[in-house]
């Protein structure tokens, strides 16, 4: 048997094109060839199960062998094998409409997967790293003869009688000079670990030394001896392929540690399993969150039939769940998936919706089952829930029943419960309920205490998403406004009809205002005299709620750059009913008045964490002097 011919691809320069376009992703050649080998092994098992093959199956195995001297990499399997006719059919006839159309369409392509996936060029990725590719194969069919195929990267091939004596296929790559990095054991191990860690057929790569029992020594102590065993690099039955009923919590936690060895245990997990209208399995974990969210993104791994594809899953997983960890496996997503495919495919959109629903159902279940345990996890869970409510309308509709608001006393309320708690006492004169919140309880403690004295409740809103969540609540809750606790003096946070009047006359108010304006003497501060409870602070410095919120959002990249560039402006509220104001008015000279006013202003700045540098030093010196 000997035959020579031309590969039916209608162009002379297809291999240089493949090498050019796919060069940046050349490691995927091993993924493609190992995946093909796994498919061949699984197919012979299916044929045997259907009674279409009665020979010995043997132990299913794919082996990757490296020969540095010969500069070859061999991928072997004991699967279906091929006849010479099947080689011509499946290897030689790479069908697409024409070279000119191909070259024109993909001349600017950057994604190797886009080309490989489009034209089924998986096998031909071998030429990205090889000068010569050889196939040795023997079909499972009765009476089949071994066949050998060889190609040097041109469009010519040669088929001759092969040397293989057992069923299956060897793909032998003669590695080119530019790709000799792949002749290093650690390099191939890394690629196999990345793409093949959970393949359903054992993948052998060399051998390893293990210790096994070897009787006892003269003192009766157990002995061991070193033995060489196959180095199987994969786990063939990862937990996402099993039924949840067959798994324990320890199984899920052990798998999490396998994926993320240095991470804390997750809060909980969701086992995904659906076969209609698309196929999907997987396990998603809710991690304990750290401050550096970018470090925790892209931790969900996408598989297709247990072959790793990518960890960039933003089109499959909703944006607000990108901080989850775990795996998703769907045969409906092709192995050679491109970015454009993910964005356009209808199954991907269905998967996205399904995951959103599963997460919402799991959170509702946790809330209903054990609210106390749910509340204890809320600091971590809350970020996901709030982000989801802000970004996904369908998720918001479900989450409003299990989203929690937490106050500064660490009490938790659902949205409905909290509205019922404050609707009567925190109602302004226009019938609007006012939610008061703090984003930094330590820094804003004096403001919180002032609000508490008026029996106002103060919410805790200090997560990275809360600037947006505050806006969201105002949009979704009827006749409700949110104000930060330090956006005004306590008695002015909620505009009621029962405001305290200042005891100062118009002339006294004018005088006090002049004294404080002169004591501050810098732009951006507006002084006003207000009537407050005499027990309130003499001076309170605040930033307008709207302006401060816009600036906060601008800092987070919320599209408010105009406000972010505006200079800061503050309101200085002077409590006209405080005894210090009376002391200033009764002071005999302007210097004493200015000194007392400046001290009161500095105390207010200090309470806001705004007194630094030379001003802080001057305040300390003045305090010592006044003592």
From TrEMBL:
It comes from the Bacteria. InterPro entries: HATPase_C_sf, HSP90_C, Hsp90_fam, Hsp90_N, Ribosomal_Su5_D2-typ_SF. Residues 207-228 are annotated as: Disordered. GO terms for molecular function: ATP binding; ATP hydrolysis activity; ATP-dependent protein folding chaperone; unfolded protein binding. The keyword ATP-binding applies. SUPFAM superfamilies: ATPase domain of HSP90 chaperone/DNA topoisomerase II/histidine kinase (SSF55874), HSP90 C-terminal domain (SSF110942), Ribosomal protein S5 domain 2-like (SSF54211). It holds the Pfam family HSP90. ATP binds at residues 32, 36, 77, 82, 97-98, 169, 339. Gene3D superfamilies: 3.30.230.80, 3.40.50.11260, Heat shock protein 90, C-terminal domain, Histidine kinase-like ATPase, C-terminal domain. Keywords: ATP-binding, Chaperone, Cytoplasm, Nucleotide-binding, Stress response. Belongs to the heat shock protein 90 family. This is Chaperone protein HtpG. It comes from Pedobacter psychroterrae. The lineage of its organism: Bacteria, Pseudomonadati, Bacteroidota, Sphingobacteriia, Sphingobacteriales. The gene is htpG.
